[in-house]
Amino acid sequence: MSRSSSISGFPELLPQQRLVEQRFIAALERVFELNGFSSINTRAIEPMDQLLRKGETSKEVYVLRRLQADADGSSDSGLGLHFDLTVPFARYVLENAGQLQFPFRRYQIQPCWRGERPQEGRFREFWQADIDIVDRDELSPHYEIEVPLVVAEAFAALPLPPMTMHANNRKLCQGFFKGLGLADPMAAIQLMDKRDKVGPDVLADLLRKELGASEEQARLCLAFAQICTDDSSFAERVRELGVEDPMLDEGLAELTAVIEGVRAVEPGLIKADMSIARGLDYYTGTVYETFMSGYERLGSVCSGGRYDELAANNKYRFPGVGMSVGLSRILVPLLDDGVVAASRDVPTCVLVALPDVDSRPDCEALARKLRARGIATQVAPAAQKYGKQIRFAQRRTIPFVVFPDAEGGEPQVRDIRNGEQVAFDPQTWQPPSEDLWPQLEHSGS
Predict the structure, then answer these.
(1) Fewer CB near the last or first residue (10 Å), C or N of the chain?
(2) Nearest-angstrom CA–CA distance, 396 and 381
(3) Are residues 374 and 436 in contact, defined by beta-carbon separation less than 8 angstroms?
(4) Dist CA 206 CA 182 (whole Å)
(5) Parallel, antiparallel, or unpaired: how do β-strands 400-403 and 350-352 relate?
């Protein structure tokens, strides 16, 4: 078989890096479950009409087709790989509403696929970790405070640089652009979402050319987007721009409640930022984007918001609020920079040395006793000199080596990091808790 070339945008981690990813996932799962969220998995594929409900995604969906065309010459399945976990979740809620208890608190950690241009922190295949709370008919606004606090708790459980959340409100944005007199407020929001990519001058030109904005309207849009505060003073600054609309008033009140509610629990976590637009068209209330200190160039590493109509049909409506943690977007750059690592390269805690070929059954029996007590153990692959077997453990950063036939015929165990060697009983010996499994380490950036 010829060697295949790498495909950009599809990261494949080395075993020691995958250990870090697994520990990240376990930490997220623990925090989410401590906060009462239940795990679900959804299928990798969705109907195209569902995937395209999200807005500005038609060029990013990987479409499925059969390699061999059907008899009529068509191989279009009408299906695509999901590019996030929110749209599949909305479908899941509608299909299973009769068997779910509301409000329903869900978390989901799965791969997603997106056909965008690969770059640092952006991949074509990536892991995402979502939490959402949905309710039937009405959703209490206090969940818009709770969700970012749960995500902050999850970040605090990981060896990560500091995170800062930026929040806005869709009603606030729509009300501002409507009160300003722009004909298509939703189109204005989608243009504003491009501000960081194109810059203010290009954005002003787009507002004029695509929405027919006047010079004054474009100026006020840019002034609006520059408002960013770490408290509720943003509301006064928005009002100073002189724009009035009932929806704007509603959005200002809702965002003020979120900013004050989060700050009361986690001061310094959240900012009110009018430049946060979220171009995805199903958001209806608070929207969030999260930036990692020292890695602002990655853009938002955790985003989300409130949606009232995404999980809805002719009979039922399930409003929700959620956030999506870009697990791969966070982790891969940190791994590349050596900022996070595992304390060892393999899960193995103990290597049982092999005195000779005939001793393998006894050594395997000893290893099974340790595994039965929850200690990850493997037997050396070959009956080489003990020096070579110790180097085998060192190369894999296995911390302990057991010698079944040590001096006097009694087993002994050596900590190969400091050379300390003591008597060994497979029924009672216990490694230090920090050595039992690989730990996450943060070297600092």
Answers:
(1) N
(2) 13
(3) yes
(4) 13
(5) parallel
Residue type (1 letter), 4: S
pLDDT tens for each residue of 137-193? 999 999 999 999 999 999 999 999 999 999 999 999 999 999 999 988 888 888 887
First to last CA, the chain: 41
In terms of DSSP bridges, do strands 63-65 and 163-169 run parallel, antiparallel, or are they unpaired? unpaired
- Beta-bridged to residue 290, according to DSSP, are 165, 302
List the alpha helices (DSSP H) in 318-400: 327-336, 360-372, 386-395
Q: What phi and psi values does residue 229 have, to the nearest 5 degrees? A: -135, 160
Per-residue pLDDT tens digits for 244-257:
999 999 999 999 99
Residue 51 has pLDDT above 80, yes or no: yes
Give the orientation angle of helix 246-265 with respect to helix 170-180, to 10 degrees: 150
Q: Which residue has the tokens 């637009």?
A: 277
Q: What stretch of H or E contains 414?
A: strand 412-415
CB atoms within 10 A of CB 433: 8
Structure-block tokens of residue 30: 């623990």
For the ranges 88-102, 157-171, 204-218, 381-395, which has the lowest average pLDDT?
204-218
Cα–Cα distance between 175 and 36 in angstroms, integer?
Answer: 35
Q: Is the peptide bond before 141 cis (omega within 30 degrees of 0)?
A: no
Tokens 């995170």 belong to residue: 163
Concatenated DSSP letters of 136-150:
SS---TTHHHHHHHH
- Which long-range CB contacts under 8 A does 76-80 form with residues at least 24 apart? 78/47, 78/48, 78/49, 79/45, 79/46, 79/47, 79/48, 80/45, 80/46, 80/47, 80/48, 80/51
pLDDT reading at 2 higher than 50: no
Contact predicate 379/367, CB 8 Å: yes
Binned at pLDDT 50, 70 and 90, residue 262 comes out as very high
Residue 279's nearest CA partner among 195, 179, 163, 181 is 195
Tokens of 39: 């795990």
Residue 445 pLDDT: 47
Give this prediction's pTM. 0.90
Say whether pLDDT at 44 is over 90. yes
CB 409 within 8 A of CB 427: no
Complete DSSP assignment for 272-310: EETT-----TT--SEEEEEEETT-GGG--SEEEEEESSS
Instruction: Tell which residue, 173, 290, 171, has the closest CA to residue 224.
Output: 173
Structure tokens at 377: 């153990």
